[in-house]
Design brief:
Helix 5 links the parallel strand 2 and strand 3. This protein is α/β, with parallel strands linked by helices and about 675 residues long. It has an eight-stranded mixed beta sheet, sandwiched between helices. It has a five-stranded parallel beta sheet with strand order 16-13-12-21-17. A three-stranded mixed beta sheet has the order 5-11-10. It is built from 23 helices and 24 strands. The longest helix has 29 residues. The protein is globular and about 80 Å long. Helix content is about 35%, strand content about 15%.
């Protein structure tokens, strides 16, 4: 289930852990189809995926660069003075003063005489970078929004901008501090949840149609035409007009509409309410209309969060999302709501029908797994409104979520590359040992734990040399877009092997192999803690790094027969020799390695580097349950010794073991990252 930010690190809706097992159980029905590929097929699919990703990245980077402070192109227009796009209803130009009140922020966000549609999010200054990213992306999407500042510092920062309607929340007025706990039972989290539901209620009472959004959501387009069923998009022939795949008309009957943590955008597109009801409702994207029923629900939701009736089923719950899910479902029933197949709405929600609950299409409001791992938008040929950074791994915190956005070119808060910046990019290529294993399995079963384990071992081994060379050259390392052959989640609670190495519930997407997010291979938190600067492959799509001469490909050749020439290194070189050979290219912004297998024999600061590499080049824990004893289920992929080695906590589970790369010899003896 999608990870949520902590109250200090990110003020988002809490995950409903009580319903997690039900979600996965309902999502994993049907046999998983193992992906059948040849290496040519893998290469073709890989190239197609990377080409599509690069094209999308270039487009988004161009747009985001224009919106970012100091970025190229015209500055993004302030939200309240932006001219209307074809996808958004026209709004009269207006600009008002922000005095810290909600009313003033709403006047700036939604100019005009009558309340309308508005997005609302809440955060404190601990997440200033996420706040800036949210603002820049929402402005670019021309989506009206307000941000409730949870501390005074956040209000000061946001109100100084020209594009961020913000106000001071009750918690900020009281000077309340957040303890930073990511436990939903913590006092500060509960206090924040009560404040947030109360602020959403205030806006609904004022007559606004409110889309509550977590701050870890990137808005690519304004959802207003869809949610309000207005403008060109709602007309016959329009994107959401009658008979369209995502028709907006049926959703108009919903008093409340919510996103989900389900794993299959494809099944959601077909089943809509029936599929959505089988999983966890995610209030990180939650829409409330100011109808009589919508207001009544907002009132009671807030009350059940702040002061649940003694003895009620809400007393023991620790988050507003848990309360929401329990309110919408009949007690001790599953899914506890009438959800017809293909319908946009669920009946009998909240005490048997006190509200009509809408299902926000997962393909349009994508969660983290659907976007960052499955790339369901490309497969389903849809243009999503939003990407919610759920299902991030590592520490599930701001660092992990920022990394996911950066990799996908959805992070606008970074300045563009400095003119003087110099990079060493490691290109992706299939390691020979991995290719051998792919050839071994052929079309029958290429996506499996044997191939994936070999790939991860090879990736971190190459990274040892790439990182060492980058440090020797004084350049910033650019990570490659690796290929993953198995999915990964936080814990080994499900049998991933039975579903073609895809997480149960997502297997209909047939997305394996896929471009690995960093947190499938490394720990972003460990790199952040070590303060090691690096960039993602997406940075190479920045306009200034696509200019002629900005990138030079470094040639690698076996030392026997190698002759010195510009931009060429012998395999098995030393860091000192490589530094000398590449001196003529010191002014080149990007030097790109085709791979780093057998690249370095020795380095100058071996002891210090080995200590650093021991922290950075460790594969995160990868475990999974077995449908039958692992010794039997995994026998087709792994030798018995390896199965025993990864025996996990019982005979029905397996934890992959990946060794750290060999250390450089402190005495200067040759230590290659691969066997010659």
């Amino acid at each position: 289930m999608g990870a949520r930010f902590t109250a200090l690190l990110l003020v988002g809706a809490a995950s409903l852990m009580i319903l997690a097992s039900s979600m996965f159980g309902s999502s994993s029905s049907g046999a998983g189809r193992i992906v059948h590929v040849t290496e040519r097929g893998v290469a073709a699919a890989r190239q197609q995926q990377l080409a599509a990703t690069a094209a999308v990245s270039r487009s988004r980077l161009t747009n985001l660069a224009e919106a970012a402070p100091g970025g190229g192109g015209a500055a993004a227009p302030p939200l309240a003075t932006a001219t209307a796009s074809a996808a958004s209803p026209e709004r009269p130009a207006a600009r008002g003063a922000l005095d810290g009140s909600l009313e003033a922020a709403l006047r700036v966000a939604v100019p005009g005489e009558a309340p309308g549609f508005v997005m609302a999010s809440f955060a404190n200054s601990a997440l200033n970078d996420h706040l800036v990213n949210f603002v820049l992306c929402a402005v670019r999407a021309r989506a009206p929004f307000v941000i409730g500042a949870v501390d005074q510092a956040a209000f000061t920062m946001l109100s100084a901008r020209r594009d961020a309607p913000t106000y001071v929340t009750p918690m900020a007025k009281e000077g309340a501090s957040l303890d930073g706990s990511n436990q939903h039972s913590s006092g500060s989290w509960k206090r924040f949840a009560g404040m947030r539901t109360g602020e959403v209620l205030r806006m609904v009472r004022l007559g606004y149609s409110v889309l509550h959004t977590d701050i870890d959501v990137v808005w690519l387009r304004s959802p207003e035409p869809y949610l309000m069923c207005s403008g060109e998009a709602s007309r016959p022939g329009g994107e959401h007009g009658p008979g369209s795949r995502f028709e907006c008309g049926p959703l108009l009957s919903a008093d409340v509409a919510v996103s989900s943590d389900n794993m299959s955008p494809g099944r959601d597109t077909e089943g809509r309410a029936s599929y959505s009801a089988g999983g966890t409702f995610n209030t990180g994207i939650l829409f409330l209309r100011p109808t009589v029923k919508g207001r009544a629900f907002a009132e009671e939701w807030h009350a059940n969060v702040v002061s649940p009736p003694p003895g009620s089923r809400y007393v023991s719950l620790t988050s507003d999302q848990q309360v929401f899910n329990h309110m919408m479902r009949k007690p001790r029933q599953w899914p506890g709501v009438d959800a017809p197949h293909g319908s946009a709405v669920m009946r009998e929600a909240w005490d048997g029908g006190r509200v009509t609950l809408g299902s926000l299409p997962l393909a349009l409001f994508l969660n983290g797994h659907g976007y960052f791992v499955q790339r369901a938008d490309l497969r389903l040929k849809v243009s999503p409104f939003a990407v919610h950074a759920t299902y991030s791994l590592d520490n599930h915190d701001g660092v992990a979520k920022r990394q996911r956005f950066r990799e996908a070119a959805l992070w606008a808060a970074d300045p563009p590359p400095r003119p003087e910046a110099r990079y060493l990019a490691l290109n992706f290529s299939t390691p020979p040992l991995v290719q051998t294993k792919i050839d071994k399995y052929g079309r029958a079963n290429a996506a499996n734990i044997d191939v994936h384990s070999a790939a991860l071992n090879a990736y971190v081994a190459e990274l040892r040399d790439a990182l060492a060379l980058a440090r020797a050259l004084g350049r910033t390392l650019v990570l490659p877009r690796w290929t993953c052959w198995c999915d990964r989640m936080w814990s080994g609670s499900d049998d991933i092997f039975h579903f073609g190495c895809m997480y149960p519930g997502s297997q209909d997407g047939k997305f394996v192999p896929f471009a690995c997010p960093m947190d499938h291979v490394l720990s972003p938190a460990a790199w952040a803690k070590a303060e090691v600067d690096y960039r993602d492959a997406a940075i190479l799509d920045q306009p200034q790094l696509r200019a002629s001469g900005a990138v030079v490909d470094v040639g690698l050749e076996p030392r026997p027969g190698w002759t010195r020439k510009a931009g060429s290194l012998p395999l098995g070189t030393s860091a000192a020799e490589a530094r000398e050979l590449l001196k003529p290219l010191a002014a080149t912004p990007v030097l790109r390695l085709p791979h780093a297998r057998g690249l370095l024999c020795s380095i100058d600061d071996a002891a210090a580097f080995n200590s650093l590499a021991d922290k950075l080049l460790r594969i995160p824990t990868w475990c999974a349950k077995c449908f039958q004893p692992c010794s039997k289920e995994l026998a087709g992929w792994l030798p018995a010794e390896e199965i025993r080695r990864g025996g996990g906590w019982d005979k029905m589970s397996y934890c992959m073991k990946v060794d750290v790369p060999p250390k450089f010899d402190a005495g200067g003896a040759c230590s290659l990252n691969v066997q010659p």
